[in-house]
Amino acid sequence: MRTPSPRRIMAGAALSAIAAASLVGVTACGSASTTASRPAAVSTTATPVQTPQPALRMVSNHGHKLAFHVTPGHLPAIVLDAGGGADSSYWKDLAPALAKATGSEIITYDRAGMGASDDVPGPWKVGDAVSDLQAGLTAVGATHDVILVSHSEAGEIATYFARANPQWLDGAVLVDASLPGFYTDNEIARIVAVNKGQIAALATQPSTQQTRQLIAVAQDYAPMHRAYHQVTWPQTVPVTVIASAKTPFVTSPADAQRWRDTQVAFGHDGTNRDYILAPDTSHDVPLERPDIVIQAITNMIHQNG
């Protein structure tokens, strides 16, 4: 994995929403609610092994190249998808720990315009991101027995991907992810209004991967999220929701509560869904409590084993 890129820009709660939201042991037989305790030990029956190094695979899709990093292992393959403004280096610590804990193949990647992947000009479109992920997983042979782990904005990609390819997935773990129920017309309008000035200010700053991605997501934010609000998760795909304590909206109590309520409702909407609250965490649950994320993934593996 590469050296971590600079942290994505977080200029207040509303811009955090574009970057972030466009931006423990529980059973799968019933919808459960859990608050993870500290410390949360990672339990697994996998035999400890020397963690292999990831191999870089460049994949072409519709004229641009995407960087996929594959750590060898057995099935299920675990695909890690970072949030808005972050590339595969976001998982630089969690990926090897997850490989050691599970022995599974671990796949991380850079979405278009991030890390080692090519820039694609124009507004960010979730359909294009889903197409890129499909192309990459097809190229590396991960088209079945996959557990998709998606943080923040990647929750939108996961939702559309799961609807298009339910047969590829053994399950998904959505980590403080952007979920359809959050995006009412009033919420979208408020976010767009508050961010208008901040996005304009970004456009005057030196161009970086992070600023370009924030601007690209903002361009079609309203219509994209009105459509997303109507989308449902496929009931045949098991899913665990891990919610942060603080949410992306650290300065807006009303938005933070709506985010929390959406996470809880989604996590209880089905017999094969689970909800976990990660205590004392910011939006960056994978960085602050990797143990909770690893435990949720190992539980998913065991439940579908």
Keywords:
305 residues, alpha/beta, nine-stranded mixed beta sheet, 9 strands, 19% strand, globular, disordered N terminus
Structure explained in plain terms:
The model is unreliable at 1-16, 18-31 and 37-46 (pLDDT under 50). This protein has a nine-stranded mixed beta sheet, sandwiched between helices. It has helices spanning 12-21, 94-102, 126-139, 154-164, 185-203, 209-219, 221-229, 253-267, 285-288, 290-303, and strands at 32-35, 55-61, 64-71, 74-81, 104-109, 146-151, 169-175, 239-244, 273-278. It is of the alpha/beta class. The longest helix is centred in the middle third of the chain and has 19 residues, at 185-203. Helices cover 38% and strands 19% of the residues. It is globular and about 50 Å long. The protein has ten helices and nine strands.
Termini distance? 29 Å
Radius of gyration: 18 Å
- SS elements, strand count: 9
User: Sheet with the most strands?
Assistant: 9 strands, mixed
Q: Report the uncertain regions.
A: 1-16, 18-31, 37-46
The chain-level mean pLDDT equals 87
The total count of helices amounts to 10
Q: N-to-C SSE series?
A: HEEEEHEHEHEHHHEHEHH
What overall geometry do the principal axes of the alpha carbons give?
A: globular
**Strand share of the residues?**
15-25%
Biggest β-sheet: strands ordered side by side in the sheet = 1-9-8-7-6-4-5-3-2
Class per helix and strand makeup: alpha/beta
Percentage of residues in helical conformation: 25-40%
